[in-house]
Amino acid sequence: MTVSQVSFGSHEPVLEVKNLTVKYIGDTRSTTAVDRVSFSIGTGEVFGLAGESGCGKSTIANSIMRLLKDPAKIAGGSISFGGKDVLAMSPEELRRFRWQDVAMVFQSAMNSLNPVLTIGEQIMDIFTTHAGYSRKESLRRAGELLELVRIDSARLKSYPHQLSGGMRQRAVIAMAVALKPSLLILDEPTTALDVVVQQEIMAQIKELQRELGFSVLFITHDMSLMVELSHRMAVMYGGRIVETAKAQDVYTNPRHPYTQALMSAFPPLTGPRVPLTGLPDGVKFRNIPDLTEAAPGHFVAPVSADNSAADTAIMEGAAR
Amino acid sequence: MSHAVLSPQRPSADTEGPALEVRGLGKSFPIGGLFSRDSVRALHGVDLTIGRGEIVALVGESGSGKSTLARCVARLEKPSSGQILIDGVDVLKRDRFQASRAFRSQLQMVFQDPFGSLNPAHRVEHFLRRSLAIHRKGGSSETETQQRLEELMTTVGLQADMLNSYPHELSGGQRQRVAIARALAVEPQVILADEPTSMLDVSVRIGVLNLMRKLRDEQGISMLYITHDLASARYLADRTAVMFAGELVEEGESLDLLANPAHPYTQLLVSAVPDPARSGSYDPVRRAGLRQAVMASTTCMFDGDPNQACSAEEPVRHRVGETENSHWVRCHLYRPQAGAGGHALATEPTDNEASA
Question: Which of A7, A87, B157, B176 could anchor a disulfide with A42, C-beta 3.0 to 4.6 Å?
């Protein structure tokens, strides 16, 4: 598929996802949460995955980390990381792959810190378990790591509840990049934070990314935030990608009606007040076809309001 | 929905004073043990007026006291001081111990979480019917009640057959519409909406905001819209008030306020909103300067203005720009009580307050 070959710059892709299909299998029926999704992320590239709750974006992140649990099953497709097949890894390989190759910051990750251990102990854990450093060396590195995200290394002795939400989130991000992974997955990293803190954390991630050169898979429903951070992005709906292009192109010229609705869900901060319409209640897209190239590097799933043309998504309830 | 032009200031038909007035509202919560006399000041001297048919947005970060204000005004919390006037009557004096039914029929709330605010064991019809019955707004006969129910559903953009649905069968946006319909059933003059869209999916948020505007335009309901999202406040509200550490710091016509924020805290908030149109505008040096100015400004933009004297002790309101924008800002020199603002800005990474 051509889509997976387009990446930012001419670098080798770090991560390649091809035709990934994930199903949640129940006793009586099963749901396809992710449906034939393909994308790739280049070295040092920030790739955004946008969409609303339930569209399958977190399921994709969990499949890449091989964190899916029953009843979720990867039903088809492949995930390769630096040429290695992620889906075929043994438990031992997976252990190394997680955190060393790919690290993930979960939604409201700041609550994932252990309340009875100090920040320092938790960071040292990573070094002693995954990298095999001595305790003394680990402590030194832990201090460096906190300073990297501009937290005073004296805070190593603090317990999580003694830090503010923003600091905790920063600490978690520092822990994620501790072993210099080549891919960082951020699943709604700032949703639980105030705007001012959110902007500072995003700036911090950008800076770390420039410094350490890792690639990022950035998952959020906030289009403004996504366009600001990502080089390239994809918009998901009902388990399928409906549009993918350079972030700026999606921002200036969204082509899929769903992308347009997402974009206009964020009123601007400048200019005159214009009436916006989101997606009307009840509008659904069905049978979303594969992407076609609408402009160089800009892939969109074709849509039509009626069923007349073959290979186009059906937009239901649009007349209302 | 017909709104070819979104008038920034709705021509006010009222001549009989504001719909809701809050005067000098304060609220402290006791902290510490049983014998502790310490308290934390969540609200202090808040003055806020909502005209008839006006939408006022209250913005601020979490912990700034906006929800405490809403809870006090809705009488879910007992204010420590101040007055709440509806139609010029102080409801704190009128109903001293708890909110009366008369008060509830004047003011209704819409909460943040439509999943939690609707009882899962009942059908939609139950919620609306109960509101109508308790406040005797259902008319004299069953046919009238039925008609009123269907009317309510149409008003909030739902189909009448959804009256038989259970909350779990509806989407988040539809549930929030039911919550709004329930508030409307009472025919209130003021609706307090505390972050009504923050738990909804992005693509249906605008629909709920448009509905709130429609209710104002068509039924003249006044609203206090509490949010942390400046862009939606600008989109919906006629006026916006900014809250910081339990006190209002700036207020004005929404477009003017966000175009020309005068208080450093407002500037801080405005500069932090993600906006692809000005991507890469984050400047840590300017940010540190703003934080400094919020906590301890040494200068005020009105220093030396003979008409508007500054004061470090009294929260003086300076007028900003033209009078018709009714834009004011609290004097920068004014210091809130020690520690009051600490929480909101404690996230600054370079701060030295070493917690125990």
Answer: A7
